[in-house]
Write a structure and sequence with these properties.
Radius of gyration: 19 Å
Distance between the termini: 44 Å
Bound molecules: ligand UYC
Order of helices and strands: HHHHHHHHHHHHEEH
Strand content: under 5%
Shape: globular
Number of strands: 2
Number of helices: 13
Strand order of the largest sheet: 1-2
Oligomer: single chain
Largest sheet: 2 strands, antiparallel
Length: 231
C-alpha cells in the first residue's frame, strides 16, 4: 500500500548508510515504487563522492530487469557512479561495464591489463609488472580502479580490502593467502578455475595478483600511498 511505501521511504532516508544497505532488499520487494525510490536516492546523492550504499543501489537498479531503471542509469550514470578519473588518459569505462555486469573474471583480466597500461608500453608488452612501476602509479588511477571493485562488490573486493586484511595479519603473506582464498593449506589456488568469480568468494579474494614472481608487486600495491591519502 502507499502507506507502506511512505514508511519505507521515510525509514530509508533517515537511516545510516549501513542500515540503508541492509534495507535495499526490502525496498526492492515493493516493486516499481522501490526502484523509483532507489533512483530518487541515487539522484539526490550524485553531488557527493559515492560510497558503498550507492554501489549497492546502482547494482540493484542495474540488475532489476526494468526498462525504466535501465533508462535511468543510461541517462544519469552512463559511466556508472565512480568518477573514472585518470592521470594518464586511461579509459576505465570497459572495466566499469564488466563490474556492473558482475563479470568478475573478465574484470580481473582487464584490471591487470589496465595496470600494465598504466605502467607504460614496456609493461603492456611484457604483460606483467615490476614493483618499481607500481611505486610510480598515480594515486588517482589506483583509487579509480579500487573504487570500481569496491563499489561493485558490496565492499568485498579491491586492493584497499586486501590491504586491511594484510595489516590485520601483521603483513604475514601466508596468513593473507589463506584468508583470501589464494592458498588452501599448502596448495596454491589454481588460475583460473579454482578461483571464485562471484560475491560468494572470501573477502579480498579479488583482484588477483599472480605470485609466480614473488610478493614484491603486491607488496608495492598494498603499500601504495593511494590507501592512506585522501583524494
Ligand atoms: N595464480 O596461483 N600462474 C596467472 C594467481 C602463483 C602460474 C594469472 C594467484 C603460484 C602460472 C593470474 C594465485 C603459482 C601461470 C594468476 C595463483 C603460479 C599463472 C594470469 C595464488 C604456481 C601462467 C595472468 C597466489 C605454484 C603464467 C598472469 C604464464 C597465471 C593469479 C603459477 C591472474 C592470485 C606461485 C604458471 N596466475 N602462480 O600473470 O606465464 O599470467 O603463462 O601465484
Amino acid at each position: 500500500t502507499s502507506d507502506n511505501i511512505a514508511d519505507i521511504r521515510y525509514k530509508f532516508k533517515s537511516e545510516t548508510e549501513k542500515n540503508q544497505q541492509k534495507l535495499i532488499p526490502e525496498v526492492l520487494s515493493s516493486g516499481d515504487v522501490g526502484l523509483q525510490l532507489l533512483m530518487e536516492f541515487l539522484s539526490e546523492r550524485r553531488s557527493s563522492p559515492p560510497s558503498l550504499v550507492d554501489g549497492i543501489a546502482y547494482q540493484a537498479l542495474y540488475q532489476a530487469n526494468s526498462a525504466k531503471a535501465t533508462e535511468f542509469l543510461n541517462t544519469n550514470f552512463p559511466t556508472g557512479i565512480v568518477p573514472l578519473k585518470s592521470e594518464r588518459g586511461i579509459d576505465y569505462s570497459p572495466l566499469q561495464k564488466l563490474l556492473a555486469q558482475q563479470d568478475f573474471e573478465e574484470a580481473d583480466r582487464l584490471s591487470n591489463l589496465k595496470l600494465c597500461e598504466l605502467a607504460g608500453s614496456d609493461a603492456l608488452q611484457r604483460k606483467w609488472l615490476y614493483f618499481t612501476e607500481v611505486e610510480n602509479f598515480p594515486i588517482t588511477d589506483l583509487q579509480t580502479i579500487n573504487n570500481l571493485w569496491l563499489l561493485h562488490s558490496e565492499g568485498k573486493f579491491g586492493f584497499s580490502v586486501q590491504r586491511e586484511l594484510w595489516l590485520a595479519v601483521g603483513k604475514n603473506w601466508e596468513k593473507l593467502w589463506s584468508k583470501i582464498g589464494w592458498k588452501n593449506g599448502n596448495a596454491w589456488t589454481r588460475y583460473p578455475n579454482e578461483f571464485t568469480w562471484a560475491l560468494t568468494a572470501p573477502k579480498g579474494h579479488l583482484p588477483l595478483s599472480n605470485q609466480l614472481r614473488g610478493v614484491r608487486v603486491i607488496s608495492s600495491l598494498l603499500s601504495h600511498p593511494a590507501w592512506t591519502m585522501n583524494n
